[in-house]
Amino acid sequence: GNSVTQMEGPVTLSEEAFLTINCTYTATGYPSLFWYVQYPGEGLQLLLKATKADDKGSNKGFEATYRKETTSFHLEKGSVQVSDSAVYFCALSTNTGNQFYFGTGTSLTVIP
Amino acid sequence: GAVVSQHPSRVICKSGTSVKIECRSLDFQATTMFWYRQFPKKSLMLMATSNEGSKATYEQGVEKDKFLINHASLTLSTLTVTSAHPEDSSFYICSAPDPTASSYNEQFFGPGTRLTVL
User: Fold this and answer.
1) pLDDT, tens digit, for every residue of B79-110?
2) What is the DSSP string of A11-52?
3) In chain A, which residue's Cα lies nearest the Cα of B98?
4) Pairwise CB contact (< 8 Å): B41 & A104
């Protein structure tokens, strides 16, 4: 079956610290992988995506590489800001369907 | 970019009443929309696929008589929680496929509706 496992939070970092949020997946076929971010009081927003192995998605300083050999899609940022405080969701979608499978979400708080 | 809205953003109701949640695509048409439920500290779970002009498709374990879905137009889908009980309290989120994408893989999500049943 299809599933996403995401590191549990909450995560608290100081401003300018390095961020890694681990995400691994199980999927049949060749999924597309996503990171969504949910800021307080707002809906999910697409942060970045990768549609095939070895693709690297990047946006706003965040990066994630689609690693088929380790079935992973870890989110990284070299220097976090207070404004990055949010909940981050890893997700996959299979090419054969339209269903998204989400991880449990990781809450990130960045303190000045 | 495309926007999906939900109304209301939060609702509190008494046990036994019905609650309707609207999901609208604001500047694009969506023949298909999706309804998710998010439990505290849990991931989003797909409840059903809303299809304009036909019946919704429900995921296994979701009571179709409990969660009524109507896709009345190309920009509106509604989720009605009938005879709500406290265990129905949750965060409900809808989404619609990105009309510019080549597949359903890319979607826009609404801001969610917080339902609290007393």
Assistant:
1) 999 999 999 999 999 999 877 766 556 788 89
2) EEEETT--EEE-EEEE-SS--EEEEEEE-TTS-EEEEEEE-S
3) A46
4) yes
